[in-house]
Each structure stands twice: as C-alpha cells, then as structure tokens.
C-alpha cells in the first residue's frame, strides 16, 4: 500500500527522539513523525519497544494532531530508568517494533520546582513566572490541563501560554479553597499530571497590594475547553449506565480493614466504558473508599496477563467532597490499561485488592 506521505518507507524518517520519564504516564511522539507514519500508526493499537536484551509491549494513542506511547512508568521500570532519559526510537513497521537507543539521562535537580504568585478572586488568571515556564516548558506543554492540590482537595486548571503571558485558570479555585481576598501563594510543581501543591503565604485587604498583570485576552468561544480532560466528568459519565459492581467481602467492614485476605470484586464492561476516545477512570466501591483506601495516596495496578504494572495516584472526587462523602478513583493508569486491553461490552474485569501492599490485580475475562 502506498505510504500516506507519498514516499517509500526508505525515504521516510523512521527515527525520532523523545524522553521517558519514570514519574509520567505518556511518552510524546513528535508531530513530524506522526505526519510521516500516520497512515500506518492509526491502524495499530500496540507495538513493542526493544533493546538488545529487553522488550516491553506498549500502547499507541494517536489523533491527527498528537500521539503518545503508554506507559512511561512501566517502561522505566522494565529498562531500569531512575531519572528522565532521552532516547531514540527506530521504527520497524514490519515487526511493529521500536528499537530503542539510550542517549542520556536528564537531571532535573537544578531546576526550581516552586514559584510564588497571586490568586485573586476578582481576576480570571493565575500568572506563571516566565523564567519558571521557560525551564519547564516541555513538561507543562504535554497536557493542556493540570490541577492545584491542597491537603486532600484538588481543582482542575487549564493553561494558556501566549507570547510573554503564561497563565493557568479554573472556575472553582477560589470557591474550593475559600479565598475571598487576593492571596499570595506558593505553588510546587510535580510533573505527574501537571500537579501544583498549594501553600498559602498571606492575604491582602488592599487590592493594590495584590495587583498582578492582568491577561486581558480571553479565550475565544472555540478555545475554551477543547482538548481538555476533566476526570470527575468522565467518572460521572461512566457511572451513569454502569451496573453495581459485584463485590465480595465488602459488606463486612471488619473484612475490609483486616489486611489479611484480598478483597475481590467484578465490573462488567458497558458500552460507554468500551469507548476509549476520552480518558477513563476506575471508580472504587464505596466500602473501599471509606475503608482501606480512605487515607491511601497510591496503589499498584498489576495485570499478569499482559505484563502490566503501573503506579497510580488515588484521587478523591470533588463531587463527593462537596456532598460530604468519599469517592476514590484512579485515572491515567487505568486508562493506559484499558488502551492495552481494548475491552468490549459484556467483558468482565476481575479485581483483587491486597490491602497490606495496596496492590490491585486485574484480569479481563472476555465474553464468549
């Protein structure tokens, strides 16, 4: 079949340079490579990354504009990367394989991870210092969104990077964190999910003391939320047509907290779950959210069927916090697993959670 670019395979560039970060979910595929190989890559769901002595199955996620490889965490573990590592991937279309060559390890230790800024209830934007942005430009631009976190509460934010104005904004920041006055804060950046941990410094009664450069050019109607992913919204959509999980050992709260035996439950794949055009989340049964997972921050999602291992941050639904309840879920790690497995409606996920190690084993049982 004729290549999409109109050139033969030998004429097209089959190599690209990228970075594998142990604490990230995605590995970026350059747009120039996607344009060269889009016709072939869009047909594929899986491939393999190999070196002389190791290999790992990966999932490909592509659109017309961008492409990613899942999961960086799993690859870092397989190939022993402790720090962000620059690599060259050489694509062999006949074998669905990327041959990997390691170039160098990247040390982030000299880059600042915090900055001070003002959150003002009367202003839309939170300004990011230009020098901070320049040092983290690549990482910040991986996603169009992030989150501000304080204690156990998180709020989604969205980025707008134009010229010399670098800002983030979100609808519920001041309401969620109870800010009624302009407040100086410190934000500490974590690459994973573009997360900013919030620390309050001081608030101002006088608006003039808290003045910041106002970014007056707002979003156009067609720019507002396009391309963003809000995990809580996905969670609510997913819940709407799902049957109750078939849960064992959860009616007895003592069994949940005993930390002795694995906790088991099943989940039947619905039509909405099988559509992978947007991020999916795994919402835990209420007894688990209130019990063994109530204070947990991470768990290891493991599938021995496909050699899948992913360290997943545990999120608390903002919706549940507003209602005074506790609902826990995992996001990107679950989506990476779904992309690997491509479940169909009627299939069943079988879960085993080991409370003492926070290891969640999952098996996909295909419908006959």
TrEMBL record:
It comes from the Eukaryota. This is TF-B3 domain-containing protein. It comes from Trifolium pratense (Red clover). The lineage of its organism: Eukaryota, Viridiplantae, Streptophyta, Embryophyta, Tracheophyta.
